[in-house]
Design brief:
Elements lengths: L15 H5 L3 H13 L5 E2 L6 E2 L2 E3 L4 E3 L6 E2 L14 H13 L6 H8 L3 H17 L9 E9 L13 H5 L24 E9 L3 E5 L6 E3 L2 E9 L4 H11 L5 E4 L14 E4 L15 H16 L9 H13 L5 H15 L25
Helix pairs in contact: 2-3, 3-10, 4-5, 5-9, 5-10, 8-9
The structure holds zinc ion.
Amino acid sequence: MTAHFWLSSDAITITQESIGAMTDEQARLFLAELRWGSADQQICPECGVLDRHYHIRTRKQWRCKHCFHTFSVTSGTPFADRKIGYRKLLLALFAFVINQKGIAALALRRIIGGQYRTSFTLLHKLREAIMLTTCQDQLEGVVEIDGGHFSGRKRKGRKKKKTKKENKQVPGKYAQHRNKAPQGAFPFHPNRRIIIALREISQETTGAINKYNGKPIGKGATRTVVAVCRSENNVDVEALIRKHVATSSTIRTDEMPSYSNVKLMGYIHEVVNHSVEFSSDEGYNENQAESFFSRMRRACIGIYHRITPKYMLDYATETAWREDVRRKDTKTQLTELFSRICRAGLSKDWKGYCHGNRRQVELLFQGNA
Ligand SMILES: [Zn+2]
């Protein structure tokens, strides 16, 4: 098979236009290269042998030289039984990657055409694939942890003017308190959830120097784990830390009482007092965790508008993935996404969604379960 100009490593930057100009066959071979790293060799999903398997061009499939299993580039992935063509699938993956905050199903529909539900399930299959293939290795080194309130905001009252006492409940001085329910406000909206983000900070530096404190500028967070909880209580928080953070790591949090046992659990605990500073004099901060919440808020306010608790973890892991690959180039992001898709296997919740298949349980993290 001859190498195509868009497949070679020094190819021109991949764009929406270059994908749009591909034929369906070219898009299929591009996906094959993304999946197997080469346009000439394939890995049989049945027996796992890497070889130049028999190419059945008319059926757009390969047949294994060893076990005679027939497979395509999407075999064993959530897109195994999709009805859209390969170019449309590639366009959808590309649109998902290049939109830094995520892409709404209606917006995707304007790119690939078809029905709304096609785009809707396609995007959810991507989120599910990212969620299922999140690396389970424990975070180590410096880990920043924080929780953020999402969804289920109480509606504004019918009357515009509030009494003096009600006005006092939300401190106006700190903008970050804006989205939190005022203390003592009960009941909370039943849809309110806390997303807890744990981010491992890279020890590498960019080579540049911070002109204010003379310290080298780091590369920020490289790995993120997220969980959805009912509240940021110490039972859930401690169970999360035990599960996801290697002992003797350094944990940075804010002054929330839920984190008061972190030192007793065998970690080094560095605290930043958010009511007076964003970074302590020693340089302790949790700005990478805040960076995740910043992107998450832009996604759930600006793009998705309404995220229900049932699927909140999907959106949170999507945003975590976007944060982690933020510094990589588009082709690397695309390769990373497609390798996740290939590892995820058939979709459990989204296969047959339009025929009534639904996720039955909410993916809530419970520390005492
Ligand atoms: Zn085989």
